[in-house]
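Field reference: "sequence" (input) and "structure" (output). Example, ABC transporter substrate-binding protein:
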Amino acid sequence: MVPVDRPTRTRRRAFRPHLLVCACATVLFAGCAVPQPLSPIPGGDYAELPLSDGAQILPPSGVAPAEPPAPDTCGALASLRPGPAVPPGSRPPGSAVNDILARGRLVVGLDQNTNLFSFRDPTTGTLMGFDVDVAKEVARDLFGDPSKVEYRLLTFGSRFDALENDEVDLVVKGTTITCERAERVAFSTVYFQAYQRLLVPKGSGIEGPADLAGKRVCTATETTSLATVQRVQPEATIVAVPDWDDCLVVLQQRHADAASTDDSILAGLAAQDPNLEIVGPPLESEPYGIGVNKSHEDLVRFVNGTLDRMRADGTWMALYDRWLTVLGPVPGPPAPTYRD
């Protein structure tokens, strides 16, 4: 990933006329006007409108970077097995779970710019989405009350620092488990399996990575998606942006020919503009894990207990059906892998 250190934003940027916050075709929003069709983006002919704040143009690398090791080869996908239920106050002094219980709320890092996973309801301003509801389930098991969550808005670049500095208890931010990241923080078992693909305007003629040579591709900084695009097509120019909703604006304002990241995130962008479609084969496997400070093993085990309960009692499928049916049917949640 390309390191970018930006302060966490606590408010959205100025209104963008091309960014549609809702879509008539999804269960998330209703009563929105259908956007006007966009004309196809001609390759190499880009708008002169200013880019979003913090966006960068990265020229073609010309050489594909080395493929990183798959997380299953280094054991990163294997987490700690849930421990036996322990009554509050019976845990060892200084345990992370006891500290959270004493505080009276769970502090969770996420963002507000990922439609379907964590975004602001345009009417109420409350955070909602699949990741938000997963965090609430952990709070439910901790306190018997899913509302006892304090959300901290994090950038891609600050999420691991926030865990290491104990600024948040968990990061539930569509975070792919990688070998490199597992050196810094602990991860839960995989709670969602995504795959990196391409989002393009309908009729663009782009069908896979071979068609990206000489084209512009939008992706986010501090994510595995950027390096994957450079690897699968080193002749592509990268439009690197701070947040995923910026890629929607970049496509609509004709600054890029395609966007690339996890299909789960692309589905959230496509739901806001029916002129866009997801195409091409999977470029990379993206197993999501909940991030935890590496020294808080008791919290890792507790979170894995919640995920096990969600798999068993149907909660995971209920959340999938609420938020993610646009991705198509799934047989069920990812099976856990434990190392102990």
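Residues 297-313 form the longest helix (17 residues).
The domain at 56-68+195-285 is CATH 3.40.190.10 (D-Maltodextrin-Binding Protein; domain 2).
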